[in-house]
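User: Can you recover a sequence for this backbone? Please restate the input before giving your answer.

Assistant: Of course. Working from this structure:
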């Protein structure tokens, strides 16, 4: 399951694998914690406000990303949801264009709200005299999670094709996708043209997403636990091997953009581990408190994912004006206050999610005239392009304003036209 499917989290326990809901919620909470440790806002020796990344300055950070890069598991769970969703869609007589329309709309509407609010804030900031460099740094940080939407839009657009490939030639499709991943990496490193690596947006994340189709059809659950453990160990050794002997960064955040082969190996290992611990997760999900927490967070997951960094930045900025509330980033006091800041961020996100989470549940308007396939394609491109540019270049004011217009156009196209009732003569 991915953030776009969060509105139904834990809502039908008889039809859902609640262990995956738990894993997805845990992954998002972990992302919030990681970003909380990466964002430092404080004063320099002259008293000016500066930003930093305290966690990345630590000698253990690169190794920590091997265990902290949880996004491959996110895509695996998303693949499980996509496989189930596509099968249900086809049984109801739906077509590929309608499926892509629905999934794209559920991703783009929350993103449009974020872009729109940030655009209004940026316009207002222009009249405050705040240091433009500080504004750019804050905007870049707020846009960090948006790469996921670009990658996941690709995965959703490929679901009909990926599902058919999984049915007809599952192993050949995995081999072909893996070969493409390796080929793109090889060309990128051989040529030295870094931007070529972004071709792997078409292969790395869709390949990891495809593992979810195998999880959905029961392939992993039919394997013996010893086999799963051995596969996880072999994948981890392969992961360590390519980091040691190939020209990949030892920092898995660097290997995420552009996406690379190590993510695939990490994703396979995480899938096996998830299947091994699934019985323990199932036991946990039988408790009322676990279900309540998973539903409370899961039903607001897109809000949490998209808004946690802006909230972290706002909380950090407010702390600057409270005496003694903003210790120097990276100091012992700063690390000691992280649990308190996390609690404050959670409370603010909870309050913010009350109005914003409703956007996650907005679907195709009833009675609207569905857009043609060409219109869906144009809307998908209008949604993908600004998110892809943010992935490559980072979010700045120009991309923010242009992206708001582009995402708005996408939503208008996807929602279609309301049917005009015929008046009686």
């Amino acid at each position: 399951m991915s953030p776009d499917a969060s509105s139904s989290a834990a809502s039908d326990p008889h039809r859902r694998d609640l262990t995956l809901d738990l894993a997805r919620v845990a992954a998002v909470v972990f992302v919030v914690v990681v970003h909380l440790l990466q964002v430092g806002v404080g004063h320099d020796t002259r008293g000016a406000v500066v930003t930093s990344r305290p966690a990345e300055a630590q000698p253990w950070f690169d190794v920590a990303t091997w265990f902290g890069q949880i996004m491959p598991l996110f895509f695996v769970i998303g693949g499980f949801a996509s496989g189930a969703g596509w099968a249900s869609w086809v049984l109801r007589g739906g077509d590929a264009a309608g499926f892509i329309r629905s999934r794209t709309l559920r991703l783009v509407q929350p993103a449009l709200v974020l872009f729109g609010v940030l655009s209004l804030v940026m316009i207002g900031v222009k009249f405050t005299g705040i240091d433009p460099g500080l504004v750019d740094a804050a905007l870049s940080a707020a846009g960090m999670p948006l790469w996921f939407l670009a990658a996941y839009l690709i995965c959703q657009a490929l679901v009909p094709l990926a599902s058919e490939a999984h049915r007809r030639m599952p192993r050949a499709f995995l081999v072909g996708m893996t070969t493409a991943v390796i080929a793109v990496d090889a060309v990128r490193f051989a040529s030295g043209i870094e931007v070529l690596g972004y071709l792997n947006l078409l292969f790395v994340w869709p390949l990891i997403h495809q593992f979810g189709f195998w999880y959905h059809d029961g392939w992993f659950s039919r394997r013996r636990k010893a086999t799963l453990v051995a596969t996880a160990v072999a994948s981890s050794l392969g992961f360590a091997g390519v980091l040691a002997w190939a020209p990949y960064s030892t920092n898995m955040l660097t290997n995420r953009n552009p996406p690379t082969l190590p993510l695939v190996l990490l994703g396979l290992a995480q899938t096996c581990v998830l299947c091994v611990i699934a019985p323990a997760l199932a036991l946990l999900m039988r408790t009322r408190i676990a279900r309540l927490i998973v539903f409370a967070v899961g039903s607001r997951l897109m809000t949490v994912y998209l808004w946690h960094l802006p909230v972290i930045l706002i909380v950090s900025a407010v702390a600057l004006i409270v005496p003694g509330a903003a210790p120097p980033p990276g100091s012992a006091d700063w690390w000691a206050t992280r649990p308190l800041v996390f609690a404050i961020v959670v409370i603010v996100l909870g309050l913010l999610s009350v109005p914003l989470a409703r956007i996650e549940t907005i679907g195709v308007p009833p009675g609207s005239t569905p857009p043609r396939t060409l219109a869906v394609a144009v809307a998908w491109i209008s949604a993908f392009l600004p998110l892809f540019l943010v992935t490559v270049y980072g979010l700045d004011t120009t991309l923010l304003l242009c992206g708001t217009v582009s995402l708005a156009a996408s939503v208008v196209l996807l929602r279609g036209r309301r049917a005009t009732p015929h008046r009686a003569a």
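That completes the design. The longest strand covers residues 40-43.
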